[in-house]
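Practice problem 4.
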């Protein structure tokens, strides 16, 4: 089971938390899920240069609190707080609700599965050879001495080949079946010139632990 299921969903309430924290009546549930989807899409698009790892949305009676975890918080805030106010205004207009933004810096961007996947996607779109990108990202993660295993897959028409294939690289162990394993998992997509869409999957194992992130 651990081989097929999404590693994050498999560990919810064990060492992973929900990224949307709220309760809604049945008739409002679908719209609220769609609003969360729109918020995340907007933030990932507007803050691409900041390196968005996670967007956690908490809804209260009188306000919506959005926590943005990024590699470069200075990009989010902007000069004199100009950028963050602009984003807040866009979300307020979209939802017509009071919004509070909280920016949190990711301590180890080289060990974050989402940030690794996004960096690989960005470089693939610049036509850099997948094997070179993958080995470089793997080396950076291993050099932090904070990971016990990492696996990277890139699938698609590699180097514009007629037939799609999957390039793989791995170091250490990736215990997919162990529920207490602190396993970070993320995906990304790259639109590569003359090679179409390529998919990226990244698993990062950071040891065992019961703490939620």
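Answer key:
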């Amino acid at each position: 089971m651990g081989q097929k299921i999404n590693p994050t969903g498999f560990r919810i309430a064990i060492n992973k938390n929900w990224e949307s924290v709220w309760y809604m009546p049945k008739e409002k549930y679908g719209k609220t899920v769609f609003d969360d989807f729109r918020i995340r899409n907007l933030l990932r698009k507007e803050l691409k240069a900041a390196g968005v790892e996670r967007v956690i949305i908490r809804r209260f009676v009188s306000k919506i609190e959005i926590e943005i975890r990024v590699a470069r918080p200075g990009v989010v805030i902007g000069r004199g707080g100009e950028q963050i106010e602009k984003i807040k205004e866009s979300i307020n207009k979209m939802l017509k609700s009071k919004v509070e933004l909280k920016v949190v810096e990711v301590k180890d961007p080289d060990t974050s599965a989402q940030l690794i996947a996004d960096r690989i996607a960005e470089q693939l779109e610049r036509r850099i050879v997948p094997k070179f990108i993958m080995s470089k990202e793997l080396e950076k993660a291993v050099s932090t001495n904070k990971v016990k295993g990492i696996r990277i897959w890139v699938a698609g028409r590699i180097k514009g080949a007629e037939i799609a294939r999957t390039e793989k690289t791995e170091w250490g162990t990736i215990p997919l079946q162990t529920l207490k394993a602190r396993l970070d998992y993320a995906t990304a997509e790259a639109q590569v010139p003359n090679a179409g869409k390529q998919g990226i999957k990244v698993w990062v194992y950071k040891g065992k632990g019961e703490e939620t992130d």
